[in-house]
Amino acid sequence: MEKLNQIKLLLLDVDGVLTDGRIVCTDSGEEIKSFDVKDGLGIRLLQQAGIQVGVITGRTSSALRRRVQNLGINLVWDGVDDKTAVLETACRRAGVTPRETAFVGDDLVDLGIFRRVGLSIAVADAHAVVLQKAGMITAAKGGAGAVREICDALLKAAGVWESVVASFEENHPREQTH
């Protein structure tokens, strides 16, 4: 896909994209979220390749704050009612245009920002309307490697995929058998 090689900023929704959309609440009221470790590695690889990653989400949670801190994501907007209103600020902070930005979403609240970014991406289990409006749809569901799939596609489009794979092979050579 031609638009992939223009992307310099990947913005992510959280619930239903970085997670499977379920929210588990403990008796004490704490929310528990489950994140896919493969998505995390993909995000780190994108950052190393110079593609910035940010989060725009309607909910606020301590689990999200810990996860983005662990991944070194500094572009974070949580508790946002209107994700589209944050787009200009996100692009300005990242030094990119909306055309150089991709947004990954899964539900109707993501449609406004879909119309304003260079590439709108829906996870496989997104709402039917979101799937219709998306410029790209992942094979994987939200919280189950969809973000990693996108990261890999961006790395391939940027022409750095082979060097990423090679760096892992160099750091972890195969055992030789005699």
Written overview of the protein:
With 178 residues, the chain is α/β, with parallel strands linked by helices. The chain has a single domain (2-171), classed as HAD superfamily/HAD-like (Rossmann fold), CATH 3.40.50.1000. It contains seven helices and eight strands. Strands 5-4-1-6-7-8 form a six-stranded parallel beta sheet, sandwiched between helices. Strands 2-3 form a two-stranded antiparallel ribbon. Helix 1 runs parallel beside helix 6 (146-157). The longest helix is centred in the N-terminal third of the chain and has 12 residues, at 37-48. The termini are far apart. The mean pLDDT is 93.
CATH class descriptor: Alpha Beta
Supply the number of helical segments.
Answer: 7
Question: Which sequence of SSEs, written as H and E, runs from N to C?
Answer: EEEHEHEHEHEHEHH
Described by the principal axes of the CA atoms, the overall outline is globular
CATH homologous superfamily, by name?
HAD superfamily/HAD-like
**What is the CATH topology?**
Rossmann fold
End-to-end gap: 44 Å
**Largest sheet data:** 6 strands, parallel
Helical content band: 25-40%
- If classified by CATH, what would the architecture be? 3-Layer(aba) Sandwich
Please give the domain count. 1
Q: Unreliable segments (pLDDT under 50, ≥5 consecutive)?
A: none
User: Which structural class should the secondary elements be placed in?
Assistant: alpha/beta
How many β-strand stretches?
A: 8
Q: Which range does the strand content fall in?
A: 15-25%
What do the pLDDT scores average to?
93
Widest beta sheet: strand line-up? 5-4-1-6-7-8
If you compute it from the alpha carbons, what radius of gyration comes out, rounded to the nearest whole angstrom?
Answer: 16 Å
